[in-house]
Design goal:
Length: about 180
């Protein structure tokens, strides 16, 4: 599963058995999916879904007890947004437009989450809400940094970001063309 994020080791030792159980459940799902001899029936996957919800409940309990920052996750869109925000913050290569776009994405996720409250487990919703809050906090950190620039430096910052992106794109293109045989 190359498109799945790497499962990081939990910070809290009480999270380790939860992660191991979730990985086992994921493997059971994969086996069901890969078994081409029979159709997957709801009676096959609903117990696995219930197990996932139970593990999410356990995880929420552990994290609530410790008031840990909930920055571990599985296949959640928020995880990708959080990674993007972390990368943007580290690279310091962003503009106001970028932040607006990320804010719109987070807003869409919040609306989707709100629509799913009646359908999905409250434990799963809680986990996703906490993930979104982490993303909002990161986004606010990025905004605060841009606010620290003096107004006369804003156009210079935008131009610098544009130049750095162009340079990076040109560098990437030259590496790709060198890697391809002609």
């Amino acid at each position: 599963m190359s498109d799945s994020p790497f499962a990081q080791a939990p910070l809290d030792p009480r999270e380790k058995p939860i992660l191991e159980t979730l990985l086992l459940i994921r493997d059971k799902f994969l086996l069901l999916k890969q078994d081409r001899s029979t159709y997957v029936k709801s009676q096959d996957w609903i117990p696995l879904y219930d197990e996932v919800i139970e593990q999410v409940r356990n995880l929420n309990t552990v994290r609530e007890d410790n008031k840990l920052e909930q920055n571990r996750g599985t296949h959640l869109p928020q995880l990708y947004i959080q990674r993007l925000l972390d990368h943007v913050k580290e690279a310091a290569l962003y503009s106001y437009k970028d932040l607006c776009s990320m804010e719109q994405t987070l807003s869409k996720m919040e609306r989707t989450l709100e629509e799913g409250k009646e359908t999905y487990s409250e434990h799963l919703i809680s986990l996703l809400e906490n993930r979104l809050q982490i993303c909002h906090n990161l986004l606010q950190d990025l905004r605060d940094y841009l606010k620290s620039l003096s107004p006369e430096l804003e156009p210079t910052w935008e131009k610098l970001v544009s130049i750095l992106r162009s340079t990076s794109a040109a560098n990437t293109k030259s590496k790709e063309s060198q890697a391809r045989p002609t």
